[in-house]
TrEMBL record:
The protein's name in its UniProt record: Uncharacterized protein
Superkingdom: Bacteria
Length: 82
């Protein structure tokens, strides 16, 4: 029955929302020992990153189930799933 979703059901099950500007967290996967995150960069590229990865001048310092922490200049910023 794949592909036969009634239009009303598809419309009510789909939410359109713009992604935030800047770095956006798209998803998190992996294990507790090796968490990975999928992020969209300000230029639109999508990259997989891990703890220690550099994103411009910022560094990934933590990855949780639904957010990542970026460090820049001694302060940290959490980015959550939209």
């Amino acid at each position: 029955m794949a592909g036969n979703t009634p239009p009303k059901v598809a419309a009510s099950a789909t939410t359109r929302a713009p992604l935030p500007s800047g770095i956006a967290l798209l998803g998190v996967r992996g294990s507790d020992r090796d968490p990975r995150a999928l992020v969209r960069l300000p230029d639109g590229r999508v990259v997989a990153v891990g703890v220690g990865s550099q994103l411009g001048r910022q560094k990934i310092i933590a990855i949780d189930q639904d957010r990542i922490a970026l460090s820049k200049g001694g302060s940290a910023e959490w980015i959550e799933l939209p």
